[in-house]
Amino acid sequence: MNNLNFTFTVDKATKTAVITREFDAARALVWDAFTKAELLDQWVAPKPWSAKTKYMDFKVGGRRFYAMVSPEGQERWSVQEYLSISPKTNFKMYNSFADENGNAERPGSEWDYSFSEENGITKVTITIYNESLERLEKMIEMGFEQGFKMSIDNLDNLLSTHSH
User: Fold this and answer.
1) Which structural domains are found in the chain, ordered by start?
2) Among 93, 85, 84, 107, which residue's Cα sits nearest to residue 64?
3) Residue among 152, 33, 23, 45 nearest 91 (CA)
4) Mapping DSSP to helix (H, G, I), strand (E, B) and coil, where does residue 5 land?
5) ∠ CA 52-57-58 to the nearest 5 degrees?
6) What is the mean pLDDT of residues 136-163?
7) What pLDDT, in 10s, does the model give residues 6-26?
8) Is the C-alpha dihedral spanning 57, 153, 131, 87 positive or negative?
9) Beta bridge partners of 3
10) CA distance 112 to 95
11) Smallest Cα–Cα separation from 46: which of 125, 124, 145, 138?
12) Secondary structure of residue 31 in the 3-state scheme
């Protein structure tokens, strides 16, 4: 494994989880991996699950409607609504589970992504604000940290094939 930084911290008082991860890739490429459906679908699901995006409109007010698909074909749908976008540096979205028709189930969580680059290393900081402590605790209980680590490893592999 590499020596790039990965941290996952939880603050129950503010109902937040903060993830920081460094990538050995240019910021523009890492940004694309988080904002283009054809790249997102290649890494965002922890194996053996896969991801499929039904539609994605990456603009303020736009939405991504996608599913995590189990090896048996079971689909877990989610909707992301983009709240703000500062190209290549930051975007915010509201994330919630949904039914197969795209109807969001509340409460959800707000995700704030920041991207910075230094000496060819891109740092991504993701702050997840949950509407309820119960949702944060359920997220952790469901193995979110481990699953997210697996997804980030997928992203590392994808970036290494695109950047060298």
Assistant:
1) 6-24+45-159 (3.30.530.20)
2) 93
3) 33
4) coil
5) 105
6) 91
7) 999 999 999 999 999 999 999
8) negative
9) none
10) 11
11) 145
12) helix
pLDDT digits (tens, 9 = 90+) for 95-125: 999 999 999 988 889 999 999 999 999 999 9
The DSSP secondary-structure symbol of 38 reads H
Tokens 């997102």 sit at which residue? 40
Q: Which residue has the tokens 């609504």?
A: 81
Q: Which two tokens stand for residue 34?
A: 């988080």
For 128, residues 6+ apart whose C-beta sits below 8 A from its C-beta are 16, 17, 18, 19, 109, 110, 111, 112, 139
**Measured between alpha carbons, how far is 164 from 151 in angstroms, rounded to an integer?**
20
pLDDT score at 1:
42
Q: What is the pLDDT of residues 14-68, one digit of tens each?
A: 999 999 999 999 999 999 999 999 999 999 999 999 999 999 999 999 999 999 9
Other CB atoms within a 10 A radius of the CB of residue 101 amount to: 7
